[in-house]
Design goal:
With 115 residues, this protein is an all-beta fold. 0% of the residues lie in helices and 48% in strands. It has no helices and ten strands.
Length: 115
């Protein structure tokens, strides 16, 4: 299984970014819950959001609820994270993962929120 994240960058507080995750080698992708997790500098992994295989169910950490939106396109084997109203505390390395703990995740994409 390969997970490849993209879309990170430098953004000012209050700005927006969209992250993408391309998934390959997972034949059960359509039935697999997918997650985004992140790791801020000097901290452990933090679960951010998850989405059911069908896309019908989504859950968010309290710290991002109302600002982030997770989605997926099963035809493209892809998962997305739309991030609005970004704050400095959202600065982290963001990973796409097949579990909340991030045990199986990609290489990550860096998001830096700074003025």
């Amino acid at each position: 299984v390969q997970l490849v994240e993209s879309g990170g960058g430098l953004v000012q507080p209050g700005g927006s970014l969209s992250l993408s995750c391309a998934v390959s080698g997972l034949t059960t992708f359509n039935n697999t819950w997918m997650n985004w997790v992140r790791q801020a500098p000097g901290k452990g992994l933090e679960w951010v959001s998850e989405i059911s295989g069908s896309g019908m169910w989504t859950y968010y950490a309290d710290s991002v609820k109302g600002r982030f939106t997770i989605s997926r396109d099963n035809a493209k084997n892809a998962v997305y994270l739309r991030m609005n109203s970004l704050k400095s505390e959202d600065t982290a390395l963001y990973y796409c993962a097949t579990d909340r703990e991030g045990r199986r995740r990609g290489q990550g994409t860096q998001v830096t929120v700074s003025s």
